[in-house]
Amino acid sequence: MNNFLIPANTKSGQLILGVFKPFDLILLGTGVLITLTLLMTFPMSDTWQVVVVVIPGLTCAFLVIPVPNYHNILTIIIEAYTFFTNRRNYIWKGWCVKDVKEVKDGK
Predict the structure, then answer these.
(1) Are 60 and 31 in contact (CB under 8 A)?
(2) Contact 72/66 with Cβ under 8 angstroms?
(3) What is the structure's pLDDT at 7?
(4) Burial category of 24 from C-beta neighbours within 10 Å (exposed 0-12, middle 13-18, buried 19 and up)
(5) Residue 63: per-residue pLDDT
(6) Residue 14 in contact with residue 29, Cβ under 8 Å?
(7) What's the pLDDT score for residue 100?
(8) CA–CA gap between residue 53 and residue 41 (Å, rounded)
(9) CA neighbor of 24 nearest in space, from 74, 69, 68
């Protein structure tokens, strides 16, 4: 009789607008602020100048894009970095470790 309905995304209530962490908004705001400052500072006579000036805002916006099964692109990059830089020699210490006989000479 204990039927519980659990929302699919229970963490969204802890996020700003249901999507962003405070650090995400700070990162996005910093990128946009740098882009706006560069837009006011440099002359925009060539296309490559516009592209160079807009890169900080676009990069920060790309990093905070929400992604399914992860929080955002920045989270994926951080988790990939930790996976590739941490120890990958997994030691088996499961419940049946005593049931397995020692394998010697690679056989």
Answers:
(1) yes
(2) yes
(3) 56
(4) buried
(5) 94
(6) no
(7) 58
(8) 10
(9) 74
Q: Distance (Å, rounded) from C-alpha 58 to C-alpha 52?
A: 10
Which pTM does this prediction carry? 0.66
As given in the structure block, the two tokens for residue 5 are 């309905």
The set of residues, in sequence order, having a beta carbon less than 8 Å from that of 27 and lying 6+ positions away, is: 60, 63, 64, 74
Eight-class DSSP state of 15: S
Mean pLDDT by 10 residues, the chain (107 residues): 58 74 93 95 90 95 89 91 85 63 56
Nearest Cα to 63, choosing from 12, 10, 55? Answer: 55
The per-residue pLDDT for 34 is 96
